[in-house]
Amino acid sequence: MKKLKKRFIVPAMVFILSMCALIGLIYIVGKSQEQQNRTNAKLNAMTYAERINGELMEGIGVTDTLKQVVISGDGNINGFYDVAANMMDDSIQSIQIAPNGVVTEIYPEEGNESGKIDLINDSDRGEISRYARDNDTVIMQGPLELKQGGYGIAVRNPVYVEDENGQKSFWGFTIVILKVPEIFSDSVEALSNFGYKYCLQKCASPWDDTYEWVYGSKKELNDPVIYDFDVYGDKWRLEILPKSGFYNNNYLIYMFIGGVIIVLLLTGLTAALIFINENRKNFKRLAVTDALTGIYNRHGFDEQVEQYMRQNPQKHCVVAMLDIDDFKLVNDVYGHAAGDGALKKLAESMKQYFSKDVILGRNGGDEFSIFMPDCTVVEVKPFLKKFTEETRKFYCKGEEHTFTISMGFAEYPVLADDRSQLMRCADMALYEVKMRGKNGCMAYREGERIKSRAKLGFAVKDIIDNMPGAFIVYRADKENDEILLANSELLRLTGCKNMDELLAYTGKSFCNLIRPDEQESCEKSIWSQINGGHSNDYIFFHMRKADGTYISVLDHGRIVDSVHNGRVFYVMIMDLKSLQRHYGDCLELVEK
């Protein structure tokens, strides 16, 4: 009987354990498959969004051609119908011109007569047409229902001509009506052939963030992959979703059946692990673009600079390294979302300020690199100085805040033989700027002795925590005296283990450190001293500790204007008993 049990129980246990392992493995593969399908969908969304962008740009190019004809003719366009006929294709409904915003000529004219309207004053088209005119920007309106049937997108390109005095004035619009979906039929057909459901949307106007449906296999997709792109300032969005979803249930069923067979042969687990491991390796790829800022990451930047220097070993060039001053403070005070906003604002200003041949990179954190080819330090120094001095802003909870940057730069081949040495020189110059007070820029000078970076180790937190006394910072606001900072000595004096414990028992209010019957008189005394023209205040009170007991303390505060927090009090708090014990012979202290 025992042998019989062993013959069935042991194989049964092995089978049960193996099946549990197989079920767990199938779950892992399913999640991995979902991730892989999402990755593929993201790549396809990006690829076909760019194709759609290109197809739309081809349509917009018709208006650019007409615009050049108008400008070259000093506001006159001869042979409009011949020009328009040569540019027509199956994706275009009509081509129009609108001097002074009034459509006067349409090709083909037959069936499109109703399109001759005053765009500037039209109830449906006026606002967006005036926006295009006033901002000298191409606008796309639609999709609009066409009287001939179907839908179209109206592209209006404002034209400005110069008079004999060189003054530019608004001439009117060159217009093309693009058929939907014919203008991007190749792209959406390819998406469908690849097994995707899709939804193409655009914002109704440049000032509107609400997306409207343009075309797609479905108006709403459940948890799709989204790719946003711009076409002449108009915001577009492509959503795609595999027709069978991100999970391929048939595949998982087949794997389960195969897995049972492999489990019975005691080889399935190993084969499945190898399969998963190979897939994971296939998923790993090296990206060269920083996802947050859209510029090169460290690897991409180094690769581009190395390539340039390898191809142009004798040409002078400059590398600059910069970072945001007190960036950790921005993250700590306003949160990482605000910090990300500051990083994106800085990257945007770099892309706008520097020419396209300049290589921009984010090394990591708040540190950025700039490579300027075919130039010298003397040539770019004023340019970089001006860039450093620009006012930069980020937003947190609707409020505007400013931040500054520091920059160091160096020249090749004057000071370095290769990229890495050049970047080290620029990096040393950057830290020299930091040690001189930040918010500036300087070039690395050969032979200059850069101070030890160890001095930078004296961070604010290190200094505050090692001050010979209790220190606290709170808002100088009668309605909101929120505690912002306390050093380790203050935590020790109150009997708190950490900052969270201090904030918990005080409710984040400095007033709650004071014994209740003394709170009103202490507050009056503080503000009486401040309102009397003093920046410092002195008070005695009984401070409540975390365990509910009280100690007598002397409060010496100073009101200051903080860049990041407005008006705040910096306060030193001293234990009266300790002062009396050590300085009783020298001081007469009156305890409240």
Automatic annotation (TrEMBL):
PROSITE patterns: CHASE, GGDEF. Residues 99-192 form the CHASE domain. GO terms for cellular component: plasma membrane. The chain crosses the membrane at residues 12-30, 251-276. Residues 315-446 form the GGDEF domain. Pfam families: CHASE, GGDEF, PAS_3. Keywords: Membrane, Transmembrane, Transmembrane helix. GO terms for biological process: cell adhesion involved in single-species biofilm formation; negative regulation of bacterial-type flagellum-dependent cell motility. GO terms for molecular function: diguanylate cyclase activity. This is Diguanylate cyclase.
